[in-house]
Amino acid sequence: MASKVLVVGSGAIGLRTALELLRNKIPVVLRSAHHPLDKKTCSMGAGGLYMPYKCEDPRIDKWSSDTLDELLHLANDEKKKSLVEIVPTLYLMSKHGGMTTEDFKDFESKDYVGGTNIKTKFPKWTTDPRLSFQHLTIEMLEWQNHALKLKIPSAEILKKAGYNFGWLFNAPIVDAPNMLKDLLEEVYEYPVDINVDMGQGYANTDEMVADAKDHGCDALINCTGLGSMELCNDKDLIGGRGILLHYKRDCKRNFSDANMERDTAILTEDGPWGTSTDPVYIIPRGDVFVVGGTYYEGNTNDSLTDDERKRLIENAHLMGIDPSEAYVDEWAGFRPVRKTVRMEIDEETSASNGVKVIHSYGHGGSGWTTYVGAAKASLELLHSD
Ligand SMILES: Cc1cc2nc3c(=O)[nH]c(=O)nc-3n(C[C@H](O)[C@H](O)[C@H](O)COP(=O)(O)OP(=O)(O)OC[C@H]3O[C@@H](n4cnc5c(N)ncnc54)[C@H](O)[C@@H]3O)c2cc1C
């Protein structure tokens, strides 16, 4: 069992991991290149929606379930509930089944749709009863919406555009910047050696290990997200570029039906509005709506082009934002995408340095969906032989 641990990284994964250790009475030294609220921190700009995305690792089921436990608890906590909002979420599809077959590995069900008995597979996370997940035709959605009063396009608009099905579920949405602030504040409540604004950061693993030793740490947990591309020379890690515009949460947003009351997150990766590389989405997050987006692997442009801005403004209008409204901020970020999350003990580095090195990076587009589970998994690795 480690007596003191260097945690590197202060995004969602690093901060929550540091807290997991501190809550378990393990002393921590916390270091990161940038402050959690710096725009370079991917977790700061993210949509914060609970929905596994661009993370194929099978362990994600456990990590996201652990995260859901905590998010639902926070949403019901008087003091913390502003950090997590439970929002109806609609994922639109043109064809029955939606997402790619890759996402349908674990679950099979028989669905009776449009008079045809169709065998469909859904990802495992959709079976969690706490999400009240439903797979609906647009007609079923329209019928339900008489009671639900969700702010979504009318069935007529959706059908005309070619959307025939939707997943509807109640997703927690994390107010990402405020959650990071809150996590950092809790870390500061402990006697911790903190520098979360180093500027340069560690150049390589040797430097990180040497710093751990200098601070009397016998273990370190590397939560540097995409930073590990250079830090660990990890060729399996790649940035999945995403872009967003922010609109004020109290801006004019509605569709033609005057009865609609409840803010709803809407997403699609299907045409004609979206594609898998240019998805369209709106996420109500804290005091803003975030409107996206892109998923471009290997694109390193950290600002938006004029064409991208134009497309996002069109997306905002498709998602109900009134054309008279102007966006208030914009952001480009890079999801740390990897075939599997690197959540493991680095046996080689550990053996040669006498410091137990654990990696926890590469959570793709699912960092806020897995951050609590990832923190718990790191603690388990710390305890393991
Ligand atoms: C447009 C967009 C939308 C997204 N929306 C969602 C969503 O709705 N839901 C969801 O679950 N996920 C979403 N994500 C994904 C999510 O943001 C990431 O999975 C998550 O932020 C990864 O967290 P992290 O802590 O690993 O990385 P980061 O938040 O990037 O933190 C990395 C930390 O490591 C530090 N660091 C890096 N290199 C070094 C170094 N060499 N030395 C020292 N410190 C270093 C950094 O300073 C930083 O503190 C989205 C991402 C994007 C881009």
UniProtKB/TrEMBL annotation:
<keyword id="KW-0274">FAD</keyword>
<dbReference type="InterPro" id="IPR023209">
    <property type="entry name" value="DAO"/>
</dbReference>
<dbReference type="Pfam" id="PF01266">
    <property type="entry name" value="DAO"/>
</dbReference>
<comment type="similarity">
    <text>Belongs to the DAMOX/DASOX family.</text>
</comment>
<dbReference type="GO" id="GO:0005737">
    <property type="term" value="C:cytoplasm"/>
</dbReference>
<feature type="domain" description="FAD dependent oxidoreductase">
    <location>
        <begin position="4"/>
        <end position="377"/>
    </location>
</feature>
<dbReference type="GO" id="GO:0019478">
    <property type="term" value="P:D-amino acid catabolic process"/>
</dbReference>
<dbReference type="GO" id="GO:0071949">
    <property type="term" value="F:FAD binding"/>
</dbReference>
<protein>
    <recommendedName>
        <fullName>FAD dependent oxidoreductase domain-containing protein</fullName>
    </recommendedName>
</protein>
<dbReference type="GO" id="GO:0003884">
    <property type="term" value="F:D-amino-acid oxidase activity"/>
</dbReference>
<keyword id="KW-0285">Flavoprotein</keyword>
<dbReference type="InterPro" id="IPR006076">
    <property type="entry name" value="FAD-dep_OxRdtase"/>
</dbReference>
<keyword id="KW-0560">Oxidoreductase</keyword>
